[in-house]
Batch of 4 targets.
Target 1
Amino acid sequence: MSTPRRSETEETRERTNASERRSVIALVSRQTLAERFRFACTRCGAAWEAGYDVAHVEDGYGHTRDYYFTHGWSCPDPTAPDAVLCPTCGRHRVQVTAVTTPEQERVLAGAGAVT
């Protein structure tokens, strides 16, 4: 006795569902925080602050990755080399310092991190 052949639609649907299950399993946690950074230009001395929404994502394999957004748009990590331009003189080399807010300190303390 032979088993009935499944249609292509059923096979495609099964592959799609399996792919979606893997995607859900792969993304274990996501936490989005508002973070601020202080910048100082090494050429002209201009100083400014900017806020970013940072999505801290951990997959099912223990790897973590941060995704940065400003004004709703994806952007590079502001601490990466040459990621930020001085708004006054256009120089790429700026000093970056993270500004820790009381909310971030509470989150870090709750996660067991040393502040």
Note: Residues 28-110 form one domain.
Target 2
Amino acid sequence: MLVLPLHWIFFSFFLNCLKFCWLCLFFCSICVCRFGRKLCLLLTILINATSGVLMAVAPTYPWVLLFRLVQGLVSKAGWVIGYILMTEFVGLSYRRTVGIAYQVAFTVGLLVLAGAAYVLPHWRWLQFAVTLPNFCFLLYYWCVPESPRWLLSQNRHAEAMQVMRHISRKNGKATPAALQCLRPDEEVGEKLNPSFLDLVRTPQIRKHTLILMYNWFTGSVLYQGLIMHMGLAGSNVYLDFFYSALVEFPAALLIVITIDRIGRRYPWAGSNMVAGAACLASVFIPEDLQWLRVTVACLGRMGITMAYEMVCLVNAELYPTFIRNLGVLVCSSMCDIGGILTPFLVYRLTGIWQELPLVIFAAVGLVAGGLVLLLPETRGQTLPETIEEVENLRRYELTFPHVLLPTGSRPALGQEEGKMREDVDLTPHRESHSHRVRPESTEKEPESKKDIAGEHLLLSQCGGAL
């Protein structure tokens, strides 16, 4: 009879947990893309709150682990669904603001968590305190509509028209005349059903997927690894956690300052490289210069926080509507894998050499910064609606480096560059004052694609945000 060593049994259990997490996230992403953002968001909120309460009253440790696993899976999915829903609601001029505000809310939650843990040292009462408010989010059923972008991708034009009229009314704006082109009786087109193969079928989306997955993994490893490595030498766990969370506010401020002036790509790549360089510099700082070690560690934490927030924003901008939620969930699943591996990296490698984890973090961060430079710039771009638009992003950036293309203006994949001409639009535009590029071809676009391509303009004319 073959008897496996204990560490192989734990390793097999770890791999099975990873497979289970991947299957759950993939199933959730398919449900969100096929059944809508709102329904799945409410279901994740309900499951998250219920499993959190059950965890607080669980009688034994195995039950605690089970409910904690369920809560961890659905809370991550709920966070991503909320971000996607918010991104698809607002117009181009609001996307940066609401994206950063969504991330800053996470930082505020970390600060509140540190205070709540200090006041409520018993873990059961702390679990109740952070779980029970989730039931209030079920009120979203009455105040949050379905994403009009998702409705249009499913050819549910009547419901999309109703949502956009609601947005116009709440923002005090007139219903745009272009809304008349979305006729309820045109819901006869083919519905786009997402598939995992859509993330790797075409070359540009395949490149986006691989780079984004690596950057999600890097963000998780460096973000949590720096906290854990700092905690090894810390004395007060509450203050250390509080101070490390405070560093995230300057990171958000830097993103707000640079994201529209410089773009997404260079600040994102630079923040990864700063985090990696800070980890590498910490290796060579003597232990008697503790103030310098803490300063460099905070600089690294700020850099990886910027990278973490940037990957959330750009990930949603690099996928078309019908696979956007699938793409974000699949790529961000590497964040969970990184979170699982980080404790092993920190606590195992410090047994070999105290600074060895920092060397690993530095290499991972510097590589991530270099890979980001291979992605297209999305500053000033509306959210893509089709795979063809995503495939053309990088090509048009190289051909017209100073031109921002609105989503109705991108020609079909494979159209010759000679048919393009640069047309300077001198009239003020709500979302961009840049040059426009339009195809000279007068070939009529299919109705279903025309409706979807013009939807971003309707959202902007409706006011851009709820």
Note: Confidence is low (pLDDT under 50) at residues 6-13, 402-458.
Target 3
Amino acid sequence: MSTIRRLRRRPDFLAAAGGRRFHTERLSAQGRLREPDEERDGARAEGLFLGFTITKRVGHATERNRIRRRLRSALVLVADDAPEIGADVVVIARRPALDAPFESLVEDLRRALRTVTRPPGPKPAGAKPAHSPDRPNPVRGPRRGRNRAAGPSPLPVSMAPDGSTDG
């Protein structure tokens, strides 16, 4: 049986947001694999750390607490199947988790833990990352923002006869 401990510190929640993701109608999960020598509270961090996030947009406090209790109960059933790996996982609950059948919550949580804690596969030899700095993102085009060279605006601005712009 895998021991699942609580994720408590904000930096750990934020770090998990940079890892793999899993989404269903009832919840989303974000997770990252920890380095083997990472520490928590002065001791070596071992096993799975899990935290719940349930925003106010989901509902009032009683509804959010009910969702949290349902997810904790589902986690007790999933703990036996949880992977034996050092990872941080954040589960973000959605409104449908309040009325969803309990079995679907258990299955969603089981699938989420499997997905976000899966070790990375081997990279093919000579493969480049999907979005390297020397190759722009094919979907969004070149990056724009503070780091671009100063110069005229790349977007044309139409001028009215009185000199005002349309923007």
Note: The longest helix spans residues 61-78.
Target 4
Amino acid sequence: MHFYEMSSRLIGDTVSKVTDNVTTVVLAASVITLILGYVSKVLLRQSSDKDLKYPPYIPSSIPFLGHAIAFGKSPIEFLENAYEKYGPVFSFTMVGSTFTYLLGSDAAQLMFNSKNDDLNAEDVYSRLTTPGVWQRSSL
């Protein structure tokens, strides 16, 4: 019983010291919540990557920013390295958004010659090619 009394006294003293400082408790709870959220996001993303409908996802250790720094420094080198490692179709995150790249002639052929149920180029390019209201300025 002596060991049990010592351990419960030690735990009780530690808890009483921590609860005396509310800021410490709030900060610790916030850090634990952020860590658990990030870990669950990573685990959920890994489990969803096993679905063959989605291209390979390039993981990043930097939440939200993702690969923005590496892509910003040298986009061509980043895309070439990703092509070598993941193939012609892959996705990655930059500044909270997921980008999917199709590189090379095989990927382009897949994109432009596939059935609308699989990949739809019209969905991608319709926003770029839809006629808008054009105004002429008079000089």
Note: The radius of gyration is 26 Å.
